[in-house]
């Protein structure tokens, strides 16, 4: 009988650390507010993406996650089919794709955007982890950004004028750039107090629109890379450089992608030091993006494996 009662309670989400799964941010907010949960907005290829399947079946479904973290989070699934034509609900897919652009998700699936109980995003977690313990530790690290944000916002109290704008801006800089557009009231206040835009928040609220436009332009430019000769690749590298330098208000994540493409062009030309330099520029463009860890991994590979071989070859030629 005890086992039966426990099973009923677990099924009802009354007992244990079950993490509710919702289909929209709006439906998750009441649960988050009621229970003090963090919302995991999970961009996922739920049924076909290997990493997404691992996250769902080996991490979220584990007793370790349920017991240590399940009651602290509520998940919102933003699901994408393997192919757009496979979607049964085209309207839902369109809304999900719009969210993908809105949050500047360029790092693949799964990517989770963490929101507080008021629906304000504060961190991004890319990919799964090998074990539940490692994933829980990653979530804890992400929560530190929220703590820093809240400490800095508390210090704004009583400040006026430009001093207040600077304090608000300091708090917002803890939040990754691609998530700041959700802080409408704070960003508007910064801009009202800083009409000369000395703090650089003028375009934050229009960032999603600029991002979508610029990403489309970058995609068209990348599609034009069809001449794989040394001369053709050099021309494409120059075009990418021109795009970076001449695009007004270039969004950080778009700049990051452009530098990454340029680094790959250098790799094709076997210009490895230039490749490495452009990877560094890509990281610097948006150091807190979901793509940044993969770029850093590429830099580490160069430092550990490629650079020593280049130096060894150079020494033999002397």
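^ Assign residues to that structure.
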């Amino acid at each position: 009988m005890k086992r039966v009662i426990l099973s009923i309670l677990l099924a009802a989400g009354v007992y244990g650390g079950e993490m509710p799964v919702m289909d929209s941010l709006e439906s998750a907010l009441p649960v988050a507010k009621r229970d003090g949960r963090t919302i995991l907005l999970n961009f996922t290829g739920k049924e076909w993406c290997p990493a997404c399947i691992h996250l769902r079946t080996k991490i979220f479904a584990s007793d370790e996650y349920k017991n240590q973290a399940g009651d602290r989070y509520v998940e919102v699934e933003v699901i994408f089919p393997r192919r757009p034509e496979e979607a049964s609900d085209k309207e839902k897919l369109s809304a999900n794709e719009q969210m993908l652009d809105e949050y500047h998700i360029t790092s693949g699936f799964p990517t989770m955007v963490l929101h507080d109980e008021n629906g304000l995003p504060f961190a991004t977690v890319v990919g799964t982890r090998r074990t539940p313990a490692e994933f829980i530790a990653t979530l804890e690290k992400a929560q530190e950004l929220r703590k820093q944000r809240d400490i800095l916002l508390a210090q704004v109290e009583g400040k006026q004028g430009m001093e207040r704008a600077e304090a608000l801006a300091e708090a917002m800089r803890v939040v990754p750039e691609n998530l700041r557009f959700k802080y409408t009231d704070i960003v508007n206040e910064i801009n009202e107090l800083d009409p000369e835009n000395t703090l650089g928040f003028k375009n934050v609220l229009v960032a999603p629109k600029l991002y979508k436009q610029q990403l489309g332009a970058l995609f068209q430019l990348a599609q034009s890379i069809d001449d794989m000769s040394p001369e053709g690749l050099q021309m494409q590298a120059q075009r990418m450089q021109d795009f970076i330098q001449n695009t007004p208000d270039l969004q950080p994540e778009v700049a990051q992608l452009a530098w990454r493409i340029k680094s790959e062009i250098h790799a094709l030309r076997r210009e490895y030091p230039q490749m490495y330099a452009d990877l560094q520029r890509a990281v610097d463009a948006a150091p807190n993006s979901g793509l940044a860890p993969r770029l850093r991994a590429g830099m580490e590979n160069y430092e550990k494996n490629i650079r020593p071989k280049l130096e060894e070859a150079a020494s033999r030629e002397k």
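The chain has three domains: 16-144, 155-202, 207-317.
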